Amino acid sequence: MQDLRSFITTAAKAGELLRVDRETDPLTEMGVLFGETEHPLIFENVRGYPGWQVCGELATTRAAQALALQVERSQVVPELARRMQSAVLPGRSVNTGPVKERILTGRDLDLRKLPVVVHSQEDGGPYIGSAMCVTKDPDTGIQNVAMLRMQIQDRNRTGTAFAPRHSWMHYQKYEARNEPMPMAAVIGHHPILDLATNSSVPYGVDEFQVAGSLLQEPLEMVRCETVDLMVPAHAEIVIEGVIPPGVREDEGPFGEFQCYYLTRTRKCPVFDVKAITMRRDALYRHIQATPSTVEHQALVAVPMEAHLWQRIKDVDGYIDLKDVHVPPWGACFVVLVKFTPRLEEQAKSVLMAALSSSYSHPKIAIALDDDIDLTDARDVFWAIATRVDPARDLLQIPHARMHSLDPSGKLVTAPGAGHQRVGGKLGIDATKPPTCRPKDRYDWERVLPMGHGQISLQEVLGALASKGRR
Length: 470
Prior knowledge:
This protein is of the alpha+beta class. The chain is built from twelve helices and 24 strands.
């Protein structure tokens, strides 16, 4: 069974895992340290929390994502897109599992004993940002999984901020009935589950069943102790409880993925904790929200890339698609699409597809030709600088719906009432002439230095260093 520990073992064998044995404080130090690495990282000596270890940045880079999917780096997006199109794989119910090794209820449970990290300087306190929050539709019984930020407020109480999506729809149904909504917050499992939780699946699809299809094996699922929900038996920690109807308390501020305290303090529902179950030697799984190059953004970006790959490749019947990338420096609002244009104005069709999907994030889409490295911002902006005529190659869309946490958009309803934002979207065609005009396309071939692809300075310096040691 694949779980958090199997992935950590895989990352260690691949030389991707970093270990820190220095005593490190989750309240004052880990936020910045997680923000300064892209490699899977484990803190083995947690100040104030003896016996605990904290891990994170498990799926930030293409290398780590490739390890999670067990594919080559270049195949991460197309393979994830392929698996997301396959049928969901229902979990297998079991009587118990490692997550039941310790069961804490009553006075024995205390959220403050978990090594929860303070993400950013002005946060209202420690926030659980890695919880896969399980709720279910009271009418159908179908579960939903979402990552909701949870502010530790007391030993058995957190604030809970909902996005206006599926979990919020569940809560509205319970609140209309004046009933508490059961919820289970799952912390720590194979990072494929984190990707599945952040995928944009339709309402009524259980993300844990999507995770089974992505893992290519069914999850073993176990029933919670105090609420009628099923959770992965091989998780590290599960926090069980209810969200009472009609209760709102101050929550925030919290540094969000776009690196602003956009929501500040607001009134949000609360989570009353009834039980904590965990492994005997549980690992705490952290997902850092800021800065903009860390895992929180990657876990949203990779499913978005896979979704857009599937959407774009069939535009106009066929697109010679090479890659889709949501760069870490774009706060999930920028999409880069690499393809070989075959027909006139094909880039515009690609740009419109990239800007309109089940994701509301994309605000700026850039179409790039097959000679551009999407992971190199210098290469991307070179293409924009030399291949874009602003009078001809820009596609501007005014008054569009934007992501609700995009600070550049206009707020059209008040926070707390399903706030939305509207604003413009922009497509940029930075491609060369299409292949149907081979002479014109040839004139746009980029200049490459002599020896390109045959030798590198790193190889030469390595050879010199080896010679010096002899």
